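Cont'd.
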Amino acid sequence: MLISLIKKECSMWMKSIIFYAYVIILVVFYVSQMESGMLISRPEPGAADYGYTYSDDERIIMDSTLKDLVIDFVSERPFATYPVGFYKEITLSEEERDEVAACIERLCKMSREEWEKAVDEYEEGYSVEYDDFGRQTVEEKIPWPVVTDPEITYGEFEEIMEEVAGIIGRGSDYGKERLKGHAEVKMTYEQALSEYEDVLYKDKVSGAYARIFCDYIGIILGLLPVFFGTARVLKDKRSRVKEVVYAKRAGSATVVCSRYLAIVIMILLPVLPLSLLPLSKAVYVARAAGVGVDYLAFLKYAIGWLLPTVLFVTAFSYAVTELTEGFLAVLVGAAVWFAAIFLTPFGLKHAGWNLIPRFNSLGEYGLFSDILDQLIINRILYTVFALLLLGITLMIYELKRKGVLKNGKVSENLGS
Amino acid sequence: METEIRLEGVCKYYGRKQALKDVTMTIPTGMFGLLGRNGAGKTTLMKILATLLKADEGKVSVCGVDVKNSVKIRSMTGYLPQDFSMYGNMGVYEAMDYLGTLSGMSKKERMERIPVLLEKVNLSNNYRTKVKAMSGGMKRRLGIAQAILNDPKVLIVDEPTAGLDPEERVRFRNLLCEIAEERIVILSTHIVGDVEATCENIAILDEGSLKFVGTVEELLAMSAGKIYTAEVSRMELEKLKKDYIVTGMLTKGSMVDVRFVSEERPFEGAKNCDPNVEDAYLYVMNEKGGETICL
Amino acid sequence: MEKFLKISAVNFKYNLLPHLTVSLILCLAAPLFIGTKNLDAYQVAKVMEGYVALIGIVLLIPVFIPDMNKDIRDLTASKQTPMFFLHVIRILWALLFLLILGGLFLFVLKRENCVFDFGEMFYTVMANALFLGGMGMFVFALFDQAVFAYMIPLVYYVINFGGRKQLGNFYLFSMQAGHFSEKHYLFFGGLVFMAGAVFIRKIATSLSFSLCYHKGGSHK
């Protein structure tokens, strides 16, 4: 009965404008964000730029952190913090700025006037140019002048930075656990080559493309299933078929799961053919390099990476709408998406606990394998959440069906 | 195997309001009419039978199965709610197919049963008609077809004829009678005519209490000898209305032919006559306040 | 006048109130994750364009929600007061609260030591809110599908984070780069959307015809 119901649900979606709008949005989004460029090529020796990586060298961490702090300070931009895992900008008062300036003085053993003047001079001789691919060429007339004093140990440095983080506020970028993130250094030819070879042999090329595909498509899949879940529940209400369905033999689990799975299927249905586009690129790159391609990489990544997002968002909107029978889920879903995209720490190459894990990079297999464990835990967690929410939905549906739960007051107000 | 529905001491509360008060009765095979004013508790009672509501007190069993076993009950019953509707952009056949699937029917069963039933309810030329384009009567017929799709032992129909034109209404009643030949059909209505024409057994609900359970003959017998007709002037009519329950009248010029209820012969010129179901219904509703009459 | 008050009161109680509550929560929750102190004009623009303007969607789309039930819609349409009048009243109230909430938010930002041009920023947030909300209303009127009506402006909003390339003058976040002139396009675009929506509804009621309802399906 379940399979047959899923088929019927899917065919209902095939008649829905929401589904077609979703397909169009998906394709347009993919084309506008991903289609240009994006070919991986072998690094040539002697090139000016091979991209960036993070350093483990304590001295480099100290100097680059200080550099970031000074730049943040003189730019007078607000400081970024993540108090509860969500991004919040903090603009300091004059007194607080003075305190931070004092910390900088202690790190570089220069007076505030001295280092501010040094930074001004540096900036005068500094220029940046961007080429067509968005790559930047930096020109510095003098090297960065504000560095940590050689006598400062890493331990002292950490203490002072904790103090800075304390002034700026909870979850600052200058907290102990985030210091390494400042130590971005240019890659050498050897590092670049090894990364390239990882893509060829470990990723089998398609893996690298699948990751960036999931990164982009995840953005859309973190939001759009909300509309499916909400629309499906409200359709029953609007068409006044609730009671007819309630009175049928089909168990609540069958009804709820068939609808839920049908949405998940319909969401993934256009994603898989769309992935053939980047796959064809991967095949092209692999042929040129003479290596084999993992043709199933996209399928694996889609299931492992995107599916949990879809499962969660669908279950969430389904549960909220089943409970409230209004549009609340749409608004809350949009808020969750907003938080997942803009308010999570660590930039664009991190899984963390984010509903929408980001990996905005083509390649970087090494970095990816570093975060892979966290990504797996993250994905399992959201899948478990999704199943819990589905369970809750089931209970709500069953209670409504037995007439125990009256279709909420909230609902009458927040929707039709 | 039992083939009747039993209710024992059924109570249902909505907050402080009591919608059903200690309802006890047995519903046998055939057409069963549930009569009562709007808001008497008919829909509540039917929803309890269809497992869409839980009784707060009392026991209900359908053909020997307790209604708490909702899965089993739902496979035995067909339910047509008061305002049946379906997804607007679904075609007739598609809607039947969908609801049949929800009833757990196999594809083969659905392919056999659906055309037969659509033929029965006179919708066989409308397989592709969208639900949103259907008239009230057509929708109701689709509703009845979906309710008997899984060949239920019990069919529960809430206010089936409300909003139908006279022709549709007669056709619909006949359809229900046909269906009732080998199963229990419970229909609720506040239109006495529906019951009179079709039901052997009836129950009358008033403000949640059962006022009468029995056959139509028994109901008629109760009011036998208590229905009178008289020709009175319009002036006299006003007084008559105050003193007696008037069940019908026909204006003839300045005079009025009145039908009314009276325990004994009220005045000279009043003629005793045979009661019809409407007379009996009004008699029960007004005379026998409080206690249930079970014959 | 009495008619106006009655319609307004009913709209407030049965339609606007929950949406107003959500808008209020949205504004009150802002300081939890967005800085609201000592901001410069660009940062204020970010808050107003990217966040506060979303209440336009929350407040304007519900203008058509009471008519979603076809019975209620037919009933209201059958009365002497034209639907058009009801819609305009509902829109006016939504706009009033939009003005109040947007104004109050900016007022609080001023108190929190933020530096910006009040009038310009007020116009900015109104323009964005009207455009997004108006877009939702237009989709609602056209397709008679509430969820779809929320989906389109939200997706449009999301697309804006991809940059201004294809969006031209209808780019939502221009003030974050200090460009004010786009706001006129958004403001009038929003008005056109809203007028279009009400007009579509007017035609739909007078013809008793809505794109979604009576498409397909043959009468016997």
